[in-house]
């Protein structure tokens, strides 16, 4: 948001920003719609399945939760962009939405790193630890990642506020750093935590996962190996899509750092950086809506679990329908029995009344 405001004040390329105002709300609305439906479905499958969750399931379900939180925040920015970046939801919501969106990036990349490490260990050291101990550790690690994501996004609470810009006539949800050094720290944190540390780890794990998949004859023949291979394929695809979605944003962060040191400068570069930052950011957000469909399309194991959950829900519905139908049937029988008993009870009195009436005549 701060980049968008800076460009409008300095360069004021109205044609390009009119295009942004037109395209972004529709694009973000699609991301929000697909992301809410897809990630809600993934969480339902993981929560309702009868099987015990594996370590990878725990990491992927937490990833789906982070994605669901993020896409749930996008309607606020859709309304803001339609209103030319005029923020109408108050300063607390400005800070909260910014924290959740910032937290999503850090949590997503860390959860995906853990998934790749877990698949690497499952394929290369399948008997290293017991399942219960590993799942317990996985839940603790996930809790730590959520805390780390909040801490990394904490500057949004410190420096983001709603400010009035008289040149634009709007109240904007804006990041105002005390000095430009904080901008550099922000870029460095995103680059180091979100790229330089996880990418080598993910690359190492992905290389060995691919190597094991193609070289292990036992894995191709065994049923257990087939499950691990399918899970590894899913992890590789999810990782590849994540890199494709977020790599442009990382490149923009490097260019923004060069702009800070005036290696590149000028209105043209500021314009390219600001428009590019908008496009790269929302391309990265689309990753949160793509992941659930990758599970459905690529994840054969996930498809099987989804079918099991669907059958489970369908069976429960049938049982409820049978119970309700049985209760209605019992109610009808009870009513009929009461009616018949009433007739039997009143029949002697009616006969007696009829006989007395006949005698009187």
UniProtKB/TrEMBL annotation:
GO terms for biological process: calcium-mediated signaling; cell chemotaxis; immune response; positive regulation of cytosolic calcium ion concentration; smooth muscle contraction; vasoconstriction. The keyword Disulfide bond applies. One of its GO terms (cellular component) is external side of plasma membrane. Pfam families: 7tm_1. This is B2 bradykinin receptor. It comes from Lates calcarifer. Its main location: membrane. Receptor for bradykinin. It is associated with G proteins that activate a phosphatidylinositol-calcium second messenger system. SUPFAM superfamilies: Family A G protein-coupled receptor-like. It comes from the Eukaryota. The keyword Disulfide bond applies. It is a multi-pass membrane protein. GO terms for molecular function: bradykinin receptor activity; C-C chemokine binding; C-C chemokine receptor activity.
